[in-house]
Amino acid sequence: xxxxxxxxxxxxxxxxxxxxxxxxxxxxxxxxxxxxxxxxxxxxxxxxxxxxxxxxxxxxxxxxxxxxxxxxxxxxxxxxxxxxxxxxxxxxxxxxxxxxxxxxxxxxxxxxxxxxxxxxxxxxxxxxxxxxxxxxxxxxxxxxxxxxxxxxxxxxxxxxxxxxxxxxxxxxxxxxxxxxxxxxxxxxxxxxxxxxxxxxxxxxxxxxxxxxxxxxxxxxxxxxxxxxxxxxxxxxxxxxxxxxxxxxxxxxxxxxxxxxxxxxxxxxxxxxxxxxxxxxxxxxxxxxxxxxxxxxxxxxxxxxxxxxxxxxxxxxxxxxxxxxxxxxxxxxxxxxxxxxxxxxxxxxxxxxxxxxxxxxxxxxxxxxxxxxxxxxxxxxxx
Length: 382
Fold this sequence. Notes:
- The protein is an alpha/beta fold.
- The chain has helices at residues 10-20, 23-30, 37-48, 92-101, 117-123, 138-150, 169-174, 184-192, 194-203, 222-230, 238-247, 260-268, 290-301, 316-324, 334-340, 344-365; strands at 66-68, 71-73, 77-79, 107-109, 128-133, 155-159, 252-257, 273-276, 307-309, 329-332.
């Protein structure tokens, strides 16, 4: 573990990432869209919540298990889909998925991952979910879903909040793209971070493996990213959703939902889970914080399907607060990727920190098991 022993929180790993990554890459991971109002609001939403703990309950064996669709998982964590992980460290996708698998945590592979569907399935033996960005070419969407089914992915996550890419001003200023278009600035940053540069050179420039052949373009590089960006299905509607529902026989989760009316209709149309998310503040700037949207979504769904949440989760206490608001499971993205800066051992450490914080948080809240956390744990607003 070495110097990682000094990392005792996700924020410590964030600062480690800040030191070890070129500024442009760190800001790509850490940043958000526009003025970053949504990004900051996600943290502020969690920080506003205060808990009202109980005492004199037996919390000697805190139970972290959670149940989704009759399947019990050992923890209430999920790994969010993330693209471009290899920019942080070659093999970061598999490092994160392997650490998650060792703890029974589902790993969600992004359409825009830098590891392909088949390679991930062969490399990692744990619960795998596949996340679909809906592209205009429905035959291509169908192909991706079939491939996920073929290689044993147990749930399909359909993202519905990316009708176009958000304006990420830091990335525009920094010239971040996949693959990197090396500029003088990037070269200077690379020289200042030789270990990162050497790993990237050895690992090869990352590519979007799952869309490598999209529109017949098999070349690496910007042409893939640009063509996919132009081919996000901005016209994706309820009829299209029904088609995707028909394709997939297992649990189907809809990610990117904030409005309770949308959540209720999605369940009526056949969704098996609602993933409350504002895309980690990376798309619509000024959107409501995910944690602030969760109670209303939970009420609208009315127990008919589990609620998942992401965006801004950095501590085990955030996971407990999310459960008190109605989220059966919390998903982490950046937190895991910060750990991946140090390889799988770093991800292992991040996940263990979060699980330890959840366990101690349950004890200190006077709640024996995660599934027993309810709205009564949240103190009334002053």
